[in-house]
Amino acid sequence: MQVLITERIHESGIDLLRRDGVNVDLLYKTDQPLADAIREADGIVVRLAKITENIMRIGKIGKLKVVAKHGIGVDNIDVEAARRLGIRVVYTPGVMSDAVAEFTLGAILFLAKSFVKYDSEVRKGNWGIRYYANNLEIKGKTVGLIGYGHIGKKVAKLANCLGAHLIVYDPYVQIQETHVKQADLNTVLKDSDFLSIHVPLTKDTYHLIGRKELELVDGLYIINSARGGIIDEVAFCEAVEKGKVAGAVLDTTEQEPIALDNPILHSENVILTAHTAGIADVAQVDESILACRQVLQVLKGEEPPYSLA
Ligand SMILES: NC(=O)c1ccc[n+]([C@@H]2O[C@H](COP(=O)([O-])OP(=O)(O)OC[C@H]3O[C@@H](n4cnc5c(N)ncnc54)[C@H](O)[C@@H]3O)[C@@H](O)[C@H]2O)c1
After folding, report:
1. Pick the CATH number of 2-93+281-299 from 3.30.420.40, 3.90.1150.10, 3.90.960.10, 3.40.50.720
2. Nearest Cα to 145, choosing from 185, 200, 95?
3. CB of residue 275 inside a 6 A radius of ligand 1
């Protein structure tokens, strides 16, 4: 059996496959195009590589049975097409949520405490910057969340520890926690000091935060560790320019890698973190093992625990 791995993953999953006698093909170490390599693969493990219907059709002519997403956002995989073609799609929900929630809390604190500004001033000899400092305390501020799934819930817990008020837009869940207020999107936008996004990228969430929504905010800090396409980047840059958005940490952008002429790169107080929120020591091992174990399960005819098709 042959399993193709498109992008670098932690060795632990690769070892698991090899111990089971699988021949592992590391695409990222070769110049081979995906469309060629997939012809030989029984299974494929992907991170952000686009798995289109066409790619899967080529795989299906060979022997492709399973596509494993190393992660949770499956917007890079045509899951509908996989279903039609009878190819299983598995993914790894939950295992990155601590990493992304901690990242989000870090981003909130980073924006509130202006580390970068002070550091650059001190290096220029301007120690007196301290007399103009005005750090924000999180206690008593409102943290808004869009999406209250694995990650959103954990962010709420962490922000609650700091004494923040919590307000959430997620019409698909019934929130049990009494300290978390559930509201419509416009209310969350208007009432939040910090807004963090934790929904999947779907037809419904594409540009969920657009010009109309950004008109409602005033001095909002935004953290987007979900998917770039959820924010309309043109409207976002205008909102930063007008001060409606006071700062942001964007882990994800609509185009990845971000083009060097993207105006976001010139937006003040916007930090870009190269889609690293979920890449942490423990999460990487867990994801790699869970993705590869499910590939083995499908190839052995067993039922994997997290399957979308
Ligand atoms: N940056 C990273 O490294 C990284 C890592 C992991 C996940 N992610 C992204 O974070 C997203 C969330 O992850 P999760 O594990 O919390 O997912 P999840 O499926 O557990 O939760 C998603 C939540 O979004 C809600 N939702 C769906 N559509 C919505 C809509 N239109 N409006 C409002 N709420 C909606 C759902 O009800 C659900 O509660 C993933 O889809 C993925 O794209 C990014």
Report:
1. 3.40.50.720
2. 185
3. yes
> Does the fold of domain 97-272 match that of domain 2-93+281-299?
yes
Tell me the helices (H) and strands (E) count for the chain, helix number first: 11, 12
Q: In CATH, what class is 97-272?
A: alpha beta
Give residue 268's pLDDT: 85
Whole-angstrom Cα distance, residue 120 to residue 108?
20
pTM reported for the whole predicted model? 0.96
Asked if residues 27 and 6 have their Cβ atoms less than 8 Å apart, the reply is yes
Q: How far apart are CA 276 and CA 294, in angstroms?
A: 24
Ligand 1 mean position, distance from CA 199 (Å) = 3
108 near 143, Cβ under 8 Å? yes
Q: Per residue in 152-189, pLDDT tens?
A: 999 999 999 999 999 999 999 999 999 999 999 999 99
Ligand 1 atom closest to the Cα of residue 97 is 15
122-133 pLDDT per residue, tens:
999 999 999 999
Residue whose Cα lies nearest atom 43 of ligand 1: it is 73
The catalytic residues are: 227, 256, 275
Spatial separation of the C-alpha atoms in residues 190 and 142, rounded to whole Å: 10
Question: Per-domain residue ranges for the chain?
Answer: 2-93+281-299, 97-272
Percentage, residues of the chain above pLDDT 70: 100
What average pLDDT score do residues 13-39 get? Answer: 97
CB 72 near ligand 1, within 6 Å:
yes
* pLDDT at position 245 over 90: yes
Tell me if 144 CB under 6 Å of ligand 1. no
Supply 179's token pair: 């300290």
- In 3D space, the residue among 197, 198, 210 whose CA is nearest the CA of residue 239 turns out to be 210
Q: Is 131 in the pocket of ligand 1 (CB under 6 A)?
A: no
